[in-house]
Design goal:
Elements: E1 8-13, H1 22-28, E2 32-34, H2 39-55, E3 59-61, H3 80-88, E4 95-97, E5 117-119, H4 130-145
Parallel strand pairs: 1-2, 1-3
Antiparallel strand pairs: 4-5
Helix pairs in contact: 2-3, 3-4
């Protein structure tokens, strides 16, 4: 995703930055690192930092499920990405991929293979609620995975 959506900032849990080498490399990508243990603070931080990054011309990448899920399944989508899009008045671009086939939910090891990624149509954030944007994105992603 870093290659397709340059320049990009990812929203991720802050604890990932503490992993030796991996976390240090993530830090250099200037992510928006949140504390998932404090959800109300996290959403305010995402809205503030995300809007600033979008206004600077960056893309903000959010995994709406918040964590990896078992391959072929979709978890519950959170509305923070849609809330950010509404707040910053930008469209949402849904993306689906099959990376779960090569990076299992329950482990850190990855297996070789090809990851297929699909980019959906832009969703206008001006006319829909955050919940409707999230549901539209989820529906498209679910269809694309089938």
């Amino acid at each position: 995703m870093q290659w397709f959506f340059q320049p990009a900032n990812f929203i991720l849990k802050r604890e990932l930055l503490w992993i030796p080498l991996f976390g240090w490399a993530l830090y250099l990508m200037k992510p928006i690192a949140i504390r998932r243990s404090k959800p109300s603070k996290a959403i305010r931080y995402v809205l503030k930092q995300g809007t600033q990054r979008l206004q600077a011309g960056n893309r903000v990448v959010i995994y709406p499920e918040g964590t990896r899920v078992a391959d072929g399944r979709l978890g519950e989508f959170k509305t923070s990405g849609a809330a950010l899009a509404k707040h910053a008045a930008v469209p949402v671009l849904p993306v689906s991929h099959n990376s779960g086939e090569h990076w299992k939910h329950s482990g850190f090891l990855k297996t070789p293979g090809t990851i297929h990624m699909q980019i959906g149509p832009a969703i206008d954030s001006g006319q829909l609620s955050a919940r409707e944007i999230t549901e539209t994105a989820r529906d498209w992603i679910e269809q694309s995975l089938n």
